[in-house]
From TrEMBL:
Major location category of this protein: membrane
The entry's keywords: Antibiotic resistance, ATP-binding, Cell membrane, Membrane, Nucleotide-binding, Translocase, Transport
Listed GO CC annotations: plasma membrane
Family listed: Belongs to the ABC transporter superfamily.
UniProt GO MF annotations: ATP binding; ATP hydrolysis activity
Pfam families named among the record's database cross-references: ABC_tran (PF00005)
Name of the protein in question: Lipooligosaccharide transport system ATP-binding protein
SMART domains: AAA
Superkingdom of the organism of origin: Bacteria
Subcellular location: Cell membrane
GO biological process: response to antibiotic
Topology relative to the membrane: Peripheral membrane protein
Length: 317
């Protein structure tokens, strides 16, 4: 086991923020947000680029000082107990920062030495983490020979070398192909099953729905909504969405003729969205008015629909 001093106080709430603010001059990157993260939860910060997600993560990680507000990690203030808190954190940054001069296994061992962990612990732990990350056959490979997904898995494996209680993941799957994303999701599910608290930022709605027990939707440094993915969809959207395309030149014109169908109408440049509890019935009503879209699709509501409702624009900028 790692030779790490336990924090003085452990609470069921491992992260607590009250009025957390970070300003750069007159610009508020994080503007008075409050939230709690219980131990063992997978908690997400969902929002577009520039929403304040990464800034919040840096404050939690103790590498950026807050301008105002209160922040406690495992009952401790990160500005006063930074090293003590970081000993129990695993951090996966937005960009992989692996040591290209070291081989795959050596990246884990050298990183573990920064925590003062002995070789007798690190050697078997590195092998265990390589197996967890499905990289055992790459142990002696050069880092620059790995694919993007492999590098991401190695970065996560490295973050686990000190057996952290909290794992911070800043946009963990950005730039990965679908297969690599799903492998990574599986590894994160396994960590959660082991009791690790996950805190992740993402601007991918499907990722938030897959990974997060609960999340906050942030935009321009403020919390727009908070809850589980399912609860947010129930509160801010309908069960289903009917997507209609009449052609970019006709969508806005036809939208007026769709009034009264479903619960709510949203006109986008490329399509018209009808929020409804029964998509097929709504589609029949569209046809009953003599309207014939080029394409139609009935789907379940998603977090993207929630964000459109809250901010009036797409989540992915």
């Amino acid at each position: 086991m790692p030779n790490i001093v336990e924090p003085k106080q452990l609470t069921k709430t491992v992260i607590s923020a009250r009025g957390l603010t970070k300003k750069y001059g007159d610009f508020a990157a994080v503007d008075g947000i409050s939230f709690d993260v219980p131990a063992g939860e997978s908690f997400g910060l969902l929002g577009p680029n520039g929403a304040g997600k990464s800034t919040t993560m840096r404050m939690i990680g103790g590498v950026s000082q807050r301008t105002s507000g209160d922040l406690a990690i495992m009952g401790l203030d990160p500005e006063q107990h930074g090293p003590e808190i970081r000993a129990h954190l695993g951090v996966v940054p937005q960009q992989d920062n692996l040591d290209e001069d070291l081989r795959v296994r050596d990246n884990l061992i050298v990183y573990g030495r920064y925590f003062g962990l002995p070789h007798s612990y690190l050697r078997p732990k590195a092998d265990e983490l390589l197996e967890f990350a499905q990289l055992s056959d790459k142990a002696k490979a050069k880092v620059d020979s790995l694919s993007g997904g492999m590098k991401r898995r190695l970065t996560i494996a490295r973050s686990l070398i000190n057996e952290p209680k909290i794992l911070l993941l800043d946009e963990p799957t950005t730039g990965l192909d679908p297969q690599a994303r799903h492998i990574l999701w599986d590894r994160l599910f396994r960590l959660k099953e082991q009791g690790v608290t996950l805190v992740l930022t993402t601007h991918y709605m499907d990722e938030a729905e897959q990974l997060c027990d609960r999340l906050i939707v942030v935009d321009k440094g403020r919390i727009m909504a908070e809850g589980s993915p399912a609860a947010l969809i129930r509160e801010y959207s309908t069960r289903e969405v009917l997507e209609l395309r009449f052609g970019s030149e006709r969508n806005a014109t036809v939208a007026a003729q769709l009034e009264g169908i479903g619960e709510r109408l949203e006109t986008l440049p490329d399509r018209v969205l009808i929020y409804t509890h029964d998509g097929e019935t709504s589609l029949e009503q569209v046809s009953g008015r003599g309207l014939h879209p080029v394409t139609s699709l009935v789907r379940r509501s998603s977090l993207e629909d929630v964000f459109l409702r809250l901010t009036g624009r797409s989540l992915v900028d």
